[in-house]
Predict the 3D structure of the following.
Amino acid sequence: MPDRPPRLGDVIDDYCPRCRLLLNHDVASLAPEGGVAKVTCRTCFNTHDYRHAQLPTRRKAKAGETKSLMEQVLAGMPPPPEPPAAPPAPVRKRRDLWAEVERLKKK
Ligand SMILES: [Zn+2]
């Protein structure tokens, strides 16, 4: 950038919103303060406000749009059915040896 103030027709870098690239632009109009007001893209000849060669910030997705497709599908599904109750564990009859002795004594 030269030290002198910009003049009409100067070539400067700027972001072209139509080309979506940082490209050479001609100064098309100057602001009263001496800055560049509008520039014309030398590639597509689109005239737009001077953007100070700043790339636009990427649009952020809304909070609801950040969910992945899989999460959206899962959110719409009914809850999974309850798993069937586990079969009762086989109850092993422990032989009470003392009760067995008493039973035999009675005989
Ligand atoms: Zn352009």
About this structure: Helices lie at 69-75, 97-106. Residues 11-49 form one domain. The longest strand covers residues 21-30.
